Amino acid sequence: MIEVKNVKKFYGKGEGLNEVLKGVNLEIEDGSCSVILGASGSGKSTLLNVMSGLESPSEGQVIYDGCDISRFTEKELTAFRKNKVGFIFQQYYLLPNLNVDKNVKMGADLVGNKDYGEIIEAVGLGEKRNKYPAVLSGGEQQRVAIARALAKKPEVLFLDEPTGALDEKTGRGVLNFILTLQKQLNFTMVMVTHNQNISQTSNKVFKMNSGLIENVYTNDRIKNAYEIDW
User: Fold this and answer.
1) In the predicted model, is pLDDT for residue 75 greater than 90?
2) Percentages helix, strand, coil for the chain, rounded to the nearest 5?
3) Of 34, 156, 196, 222, which has the highest C-beta tally within 10 A?
4) Over 80: is that where the pLDDT of 165 sits?
């Protein structure tokens, strides 16, 4: 379980102090699919960064199975990110001078995973493993990024607007693929989005506004990516 307890995040100081997170509390169950929903500027991406160990909270605690990572040193946080979590962002962050195989291998090498080829096949890029990012479509590049994240075999997968840069057809396909893999592999998934419709694909929704969680609800019926409006 992930527990976020009274987390605050400040940037700047004095008159320039900007309080982005103002005392956030939430819990994420193991193996669940959760969405952090909110408009631009609500603090949702900052919360994702703090929850995943990319940033440390200014105040409060982030606890994984009883272990408070907010007290970790930078070295300990690096090891935590390496061994526990995966990331998928709106931008793909692929290395243009590496082909599909080698981009995915980068993630696999972090944990000594020799079977990463199975992930490439699973995302439907087996025939393109020797292709470079420049000749891939946006959806294919995002699938490479997904494969790279999953090649680490993370316990928790964090996603920040993963379909934000994709057209509707490609976005639905990518989202459907991610959701299907989450069910098959049973990893914990936390996704940030501003899209109310996408939140219908999750177990639980945390709605953010002005640096706080203003509402938490569960979906009685979880929809797939092809059932929601876009």
Assistant:
1) yes
2) 35, 25, 35
3) 34
4) no
Phi, psi at residue 22, to the nearest 5°? Answer: -120, 25
Q: Give the pair of three-digit tokens for residue 175.
A: 């989202």
- 73 alpha carbon, distance to own chain's centre: 22
d(CA 110, CA 99): 18
Looking at residue 25, its pLDDT comes to 97
Q: Name the token pair of 28.
A: 């994420």
**Residues 59 and 8 sit within 8 Å (Cβ to Cβ):** yes
**Distance, CA of 175 to CA of 193 (rounded, Å):** 12
Each as own residue / partner, the long-range contacts of residues 14-23 (CB below 8 Å, 24 or more positions apart, any chain) are 19/211, 20/46, 20/211, 21/46, 21/47, 21/50, 21/57, 21/58, 21/211, 21/212, 22/210, 22/211, 22/212, 23/60, 23/212
| Under 8 Å between Cβ of 26 and 216 | yes
* C-alpha span between 62 and 55 (Å, rounded): 11
Q: Which of the 8 DSSP states describes residue 100?
A: H
Report the distance separating Cα 107 and Cα 86, nearest Å: 9
Alpha carbons 85 and 89: distance in angstroms, whole number: 13
Record the pTM.
0.90
Neighbours of 37 (CB within 10 A): 23
Quickly state the pLDDT bin for 16 (edges 50, 70, 90): confident
